[in-house]
Each structure stands twice: as structure tokens, then as C-alpha cells.
Amino acid sequence: MRIIEFCALPGSGKTTVCDKLIEVLSPASKIYSRKDIFNNCKANRSVKLFRNVRAFAICCNPFSELNRAVFSFAGQYSKIWKNGFVRYYAYVTVLYANLCKIDKDENALVILDEGFIQFLTHFAFRSKNYVKQDDKLKKIASTISSRLTVEFIVGDADIDSIIQRKQKMNQWPEDHLIRKELLTKRKADMKTVLELFCSDCHTLDMNGSLDRVYCNALRIIQND
């Protein structure tokens, strides 16, 4: 199985690009999207899903190691619980478990518009005391990497362009400078989390038309 995860700032167009890649590549390969992996379940809206995650984490040894690492990290930063931590805990654990289930399918191709980097970044993004070398977060990354090999495509997008496009769509009503500050911190946190997984990754220029971005992304995937 080949797992490709796109890492980019929100609003950069990564979901649109991934959807087009899946549409084009589907006839030739067995492709799983993020929605396929999650079976169209939204963890933040499903108490039942969280209970299943917790039960599975207790029963499955490799998974419970990840479970303990995630909760240990959360215990250090209690404010995370008030800012949607349960949601991202469920995302990380369900994604890990379901990818492990299909890992034996050598012909499968997984294309994620959001994955481990995006979800784990939310831990750092919500903590003012986040430290790069935090052992708990490193353990989470180590547990995932020991079981799964993920290829990362990092999208490089201009923050001002993202904000302007979103504001034209009336999706981000906040002040431009406030949003820019938030996205700048998010970008730094994402880079820090990415370094825990790998030192080498592909860079994708997300500026310009989405068609051009899609063509460049397709070229990266096919060249590998």
C-alpha cells in the first residue's frame, strides 16, 4: 500500500487537488480517500465512534500504545481538551487503525488531503507551551512511523493570497492581520510536526491556478 499525505495550510486548495487526483487515478488504481478511510464518519459528531475508538484502543496492543501516547500528551496540555482534543484524538487513532487494516493490499493507493500531520498539528496549535522536542508527541509519531510508511507532499502557499481568496468567499470574516498571525503559527507548527516523521519530503507550489497545482502534484506521484 502506498500512502500519500498532502500537508498544507487550510484554504490552500489541497482538498480540491486531492479530489481531482482521485478522480483521474481511480480507473487505474484502487484508491482510498480520507472519506473512505473514515467510512464517512465525522468523529467530532459521533459519541459512538469515540467509544469504539476507546474500546479498540484497549483491546489492540499496537494501537493502545498510540492511545496512551496521545492521552499522555493531552494530560500535559489540559487546555487541549477544551479545544476539540477529543475530535483530533479520534481522527488520529481511527486513521491509524483503518490504514493498518488495508496495509496488506499492495495495490492500494491512499491519498489524504488531511492526515497525521494536520491532526497532530492541532495539538501544537492549541498549546502556548508546545516544545519541539516534546517526548510525548515524538512517541506518537514514532508509533505511527514504525507501522506505516507515509509519503508527504508539502504545499507551499502564500498566506496573504489564501486569506484574500477566503475573504472574497465570505468564509474568513476575521481581521486580515489576525488571520495571518494564526496561519503563520500554524505553518511553523506543521513544519515542526513534519520533522518528527521525516527529514525528506516533496514540495508542491500551491500558488497559481489549481489546474497547474494539480498537474504538478500528479507529476510528483507518477514520478515516484
What does this structure look like?
With 224 residues, this protein is of the alpha/beta class. The chain has one domain: 3-Layer(aba) Sandwich (Rossmann fold). Helices cover 58% and strands 11% of the residues. It contains 10 helices and 5 strands; from the N terminus they run E-H-E-H-H-H-H-E-H-H-E-H-H-E-H. It is globular.
Keywords:
alpha/beta, 224 residues, Rossmann fold, 11% strand
Shape: globular
Task: Provide the spatial order of strands within the biggest beta sheet.
Answer: 2-3-1-4-5
Q: Mind telling me the CATH class?
A: Alpha Beta
SSE order: EHEHHHHEHHEHHEH
CATH topology: Rossmann fold
What value does the average pLDDT take? 76
Number of domains: 1
Radius of gyration from the alpha-carbon trace, in angstroms: 17 Å
Helix and strand composition category: alpha/beta
- CATH architecture classification name: 3-Layer(aba) Sandwich
Number of strands: 5
Weakly predicted, low-confidence segments: 40-48, 58-62, 75-83
- Distance between the amino and carboxyl termini: 14 Å
As a percent range, the share of strand residues is 5-15%
CATH superfamily: P-loop containing nucleotide triphosphate hydrolases
The helix fraction, in percent, is 55-70%
- Count of DSSP-assigned helices: 10
Report the major sheet.
5 strands, parallel
Summarize the structure.
The protein has 224 residues and is an alpha/beta fold.
